[in-house]
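Following up on my earlier thread - several people asked me to post the actual chain instead of describing it. Fair enough. Here it is, all 375 residues.
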Amino acid sequence: MTFVSILILFGVGGLGLAGNFYRSYIVEEYKPYPEPVAALLRRAIYYSKMNPNPQEAVRYYREALEMATKLNMDPMSDEVTGIHIELAGFMEALKQYKVAIRVLEELHKQVVQWIESEGDQPGNVTRRTSLLARMIGVALKQAELYAKQGEQQDKEGKRDSDDRSIERLNWALESYMKEQMRREKEGIKPDEDDKWITTEAGVALLERAGAIFHRRGQYDLAIPLWRAAIQMQAEPDCHTVTLLTHIATTLLTIKAQIDASEKAGVDPPTLTSPTEFLERGRDITHAALRLASQLPSRNIECDGSCALATMNLAEIALHDGNPTESRRLFNEAREMFVKVGKTDGRDLVDERLVELDAEFTPNPGKPQAGTMVNV
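Reply from S.P.:
Thanks for posting it. Predicted structure:
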């Protein structure tokens, strides 16, 4: 149901809800800002979310930044850096990746310069911690944006964007690990607060970084990051099941690539035996399902990951030469995907079942030896 339909359905009450939305998320959100800046930001939000007009939205975001400078707002404050991030997010939603990247590059350069030149000075430690954490998140977003930009470019442009993506990704990971190790070795300084990246956010950071490497086909870099994310978790939960399933699925993908290379008569992407990848994928898939069955409580994430793990077992059964068991497991995975509302997973299973039937259903015109054919 669209937002307009909801308003029509609820009549005056619906309009009241719209007013509450405006007061809660647009007026209240910008209270920390001086009113001249807040007024411009409210206009920017209006033209970006309530009455979409990209040109007007960008105009008011830019004017808000100019007004913040005019009013001598601290450029390192959460409020001002937040405007940059909001603007970049809006441009990303419009698929204007080049503009979004430029906005974040300006912010990243400005903040990192401050961290390096003034971050260790007395009285700046708390701010340094907060800004470093924010810039790590920004760098990760930059890596994703460069990767998306590369998909829109020619071969040479894509290569450059991919290089920049990895550069930003490495900066985010190295900065996080360096600061994390410093805090573990030296402890938290007296004037530091709790604005550093939490364990949960650190897990998310490693997972997202692994996903970027995975999309690039750099599985040898993705898997260690996902393993590190699992090791960082305080205790196993449904997200552990998801990470284990990511790893298992990637191992099986590598195995399939080796098989395809050998079939095509070209050198495989790795010297490791494909059987080893298959067995490791099998073991980790079973570990994911076993963990899911032992958790005291499960959620939809757990159920969705179990559906994917079951699909992995179907692929493994096919590798083992057991199409009947493979078909049974695919159908089981399909039911699980349907149950949790994962239509993309259901559609993928349907595609594999069609391929399975095409490969293993005998051609009636060419019966195989020992096969009964109904006429």
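The radius of gyration is 26 Å. That should answer part of your original question.
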